[in-house]
Amino acid sequence: MAPATGGLLGDQQKPTPTNPDTLFQSGVTYLKEKKYREAEEAFRKVSELEPANLRGDLGLAEVYMTQNRPDDAIQFLQASAKKNPTRLDYHASIGNLAMRAAKYELAIQEYLFVLNRIDKYSQAAGDLYLRIGDAYRRKGDLDFAVIFLRQAKELLPKNVQVLGTLALALEASGRKEEAAREYTSALDSDPNNPGALNNLAFLLSENGGDLDTALQCAQRARELQPDSPNIADTLGWVYVKKNMTDQAITILREAVKGIPGRSSPHYHLAMALNQKGDRSGAIAELNSALQNNPRKDEEQQIIGLLQKIGKPD
What we know:
With 313 residues, the protein is mainly α. It has helices at 7-12, 20-32, 36-49, 55-66, 70-83, 88-100, 104-115, 123-139, 142-155, 160-172, 176-189, 194-206, 211-224, 229-241, 245-258, 263-276, 279-290, 296-309.
């Protein structure tokens, strides 16, 4: 009689899938379930079955990144790149991981490696100029950031991400009017881009711009992303600037809850409460703002207002 194939023994000997798509989806599922060993095994098998496809190696790198092991992820892809010296996609992927790990010098190095080996006038080059410019912006080299982002704009003149990132770099370097023009250009390309709407509204409200335009932008951003605490903070700040105090207090309380650990919503709420005449509430929010690591310029504003309203009449 032939041996039975069911039962416990049969269950334990289920064949390992050999279809790369099936294995890849298994790896993704294991990763979501935090079954890291199983995810790693699945992605390794994908890499073995389809060595010309990068997705298995990227899956493995993602396993390490999810476990907060960025160095292991980067080193793994670097080793793979050495085995595949003609594959530029490995270097671009290392750059992407380095950006996520805030290793901006490495990201710039890898993106430049790719950029120097492709058509400098292609859309792919425009994307690399964007990535390099953003890396420089994040590491604080704003002059280089603007140079590379302007190159990206030359190649991708209507790309909202390029225009918005260039605006951020210009704003950070104190070139507020130029930044406002770039945000406006971004909105010309995509009138319903919540990031550009929010950033333009905040820039106008902070720098003596048209508050009616700032309010329109902030309200539209709020309509598009009603659950965003950052947009709520911007809209509340515009309300403060327009002396719409009750609306400001309501929405800024929402922002404070939605962005724990940030000083600005507390400071903005303090300003609104002070407008309302609630001195004790304003003082409490100012003290909370100081406890949340404000920027140097904002810290000075907080201390100045605290000294002013903390004094008895």
